[in-house]
Design goal:
By secondary structure, the chain is α/β, with parallel strands linked by helices. Helix content is 42%, strand content 25%. It has eight helices and 14 strands. Helix 6 (152-162) crosses helix 8. The longest helix has 17 residues, at 190-206.
Amino acid sequence: MKILVVEDDADLREIIVRSLEQERYVVSQASTYRFALQKIEDYDYDCILLDIMLPDGNGLDLLDELQSLGKRVSVIILSAKDSIEDKVKGLDLGADDYLPKPFHLAELHARIKSLFRRNLRDGEKKLQVGNIELFPDSFRVIVDGKHLDLNRKEYDILAYFMSRPGRLVNKNTLAESVWGDHIDQVDNFDFIYAQIKNLRKRLKEAGATPELKAVYGFGYKFVVE
């Protein structure tokens, strides 16, 4: 899962980013309104942790920008301004949750996981496509009732496609979502092809019914034959 942390306090931002990376999230960060706006215009995220008071603007205005861009993303507002007006305005503008500062990292992690579970189909705690079951809270993958060992990137790729079954995914979008925003600076995508090849082999050997199909000239699609 890919998260953008919008926070102007450098120390707090570093603490949040490190804690999220330890939880195996792909994390990007922005310290100003301008930089955050550039990020949401150029990239897609599963969740945004949004500070209201930024040095060059109001974080709530970014919620308007997200709507105008037509981007669907979960947003948790993080703010020292714990007023009813800010909470109501943020939720009215499309935020999913509001966490006042100071907060415990454990609570932040719990709220993020709660949002992700809420977005799973039918409120389930797992993703299932064909005979593959994926459990985001424990990073477990079960194929036809048996545990499947995957490395971190293989798991991340599988989780990405299982949350978008049947959808055609551009290789650039996949790279940014699994490896982070900076990946757009690389010369080629050989590393993606290698991970995809390994994942497809592991799924086939495990007897998985869904298949990760290559679509020439574009990317990949996760389908059940």
